[in-house]
Amino acid sequence: MRGKKRKDMDNGRHQPFDKRVHFSMRLMESASTHRDIVVRKKDGFTQILLSIRSTYNNTLNREVMNEIQSALVRAAADDSKFVLLSAVGSVFCYGLDFDNFVKHLKYNRKRASVKLVDIIKNFVNTFIEFQKPIIVSVNGPAIGLGASILSLSDVVWANEKAWFQTPYTRLGQGPDDCYTITFPKILGRAAANEMLINGWKMNAQEALAKGLVSQVFWPETFTQEVMVRIKALTSCNSFVLENSKDLVHYNMKRELKQANERECEVLRKVWGSAQGMEYMLKYVENKIDTF
Asked: Which of 147, 229, 239, 279 is deepest in the core (most CB within 10 A)?
């Protein structure tokens, strides 16, 4: 009897229930290390969800960008075949958190501008260097860096209600996230300049026609449509996925890094100047009608 009981216990270790418990423990461990994002380790992939409690409309401050970088580093090292980047609620991402940046720039503008720009540069380089595919599901508005990050991803699916805007010059800011290289290549120079200079708000169907997103789904079935395609991707060979991405991006990495360097240098000059600070303050104080 004792031997049978011991055998039953050993067999029980391999039951599906134990796998679910193990998964829950990993999920709890992951969630406990992040304040502003949710990281879900699933079979075959890692999901990073923007669920930002410390900012408004999923804007990106220093802490959030560090958390996303940390999640990407972990996904790069584990058995994830790819990463799914998405968001909770009806907004994808409103770009940089200028409220947070202004607080840091107020006291020592020159020094703070260097530190903040380095954070953005490292954040963007993490996306450039990430070797596994990055899939993005855009559930709502994507503005500024929240829109330009899409061009560093591999596949972008959008909700019909999503829209995209990069009103950098209207905010008195320089473009970021390799916008100056990727958007003209994807949209064409005229459309990229229209978005950059005039703040053209591009809807989901326009983004599909221009090639910024690959598919658009109805809001009611958006999540289901995304997960059907994600499930199909999990059956793909991880070696083939990673090396296929490498072949596509092989000749682009140096160009993207150089663009990131140039854009960050302009941002450093803007944020280090009195005029740049004035524009940021106007935006924070809602004196600029951007969207």
From this structure: 147
